[in-house]
Amino acid sequence: MSKFRILYVASEINPFLETSAVADFVRKLPQEMQERGMEIRILVPRFGLINERKNRLHEVVRLSGINIAVGEEEKPLVIKVASIPNAKLQVYFIDNEDYFHRKTVFHDKEDNFYADNDERAIFFCKGVLETVKKLGWAPDIVHCNDWMTSLIPMYLKTTYKNDPIFQNTKSVFTIYNNVFTHKFNKDMLDKVKMMDIEDSMLENLKTADFAGFIKTGAEYADAVIRAEEEAAESLVGLFAEIEKDRKIDTIEKDDNFLDSYYNLYNELVG
Predict the structure, then answer these.
(1) Contact present, 189 and 240 (Cβ < 8 Å)
(2) Domain that residue 56 falls in
(3) In this predicted model, what pLDDT tens digit does every residue of 83-103 receive, in sequence order?
């Protein structure tokens, strides 16, 4: 079995933030893969709930300072880093004052879904790839977790496919129960677009909703996994729709859970 580089991308990770099953999964799996000899990087958003002083986040000046295009606007990207206590793992945080300094994650205090969550996801996905480029660290696998990361597989197959950092990169997309009912504005497609992306490639995103993000991630990823949790009712139909075109794997959280991921990664890279 070869030793290779895995980039984990997610909306949250323990112990910095936990709002769903994503946080625990992205805490356990990278450490296990690192203990098996893999080289690991982890990138998440720096949501405002994450206390910088308590968690000892500090800015990585050499990685910060890029501007990320979201539609007509350019937004500055700030990168911070912190270590996970009791683990030899560092977490890189994607930050921007406009998008990530609120004291809630995806909903305001009245539980309204933020209308610019699409922009936050677009900024995050583009920011992840630009940060990895600046690191000069070529991942063999990018493991994307949840809807917020779902544009990355498409960007890897289009805009970044000939970039030396990503030309051999495979992607995994894991789908969770974090369903939302909000519909974004139609100008979302213009904000998502990057070089080498034709209108036809954004067909699934035209619905501008949760299903659109999930279908797009599934369409372009090299492997699609459904998280081992009871699927929300609205997801059952979505899974059936996706499976008309491609296979979705379920990796059970049993005694062989970590071996299954290890084998999946090796199959993709091999």
Answers:
(1) no
(2) 5-269
(3) 998 888 999 999 999 999 999
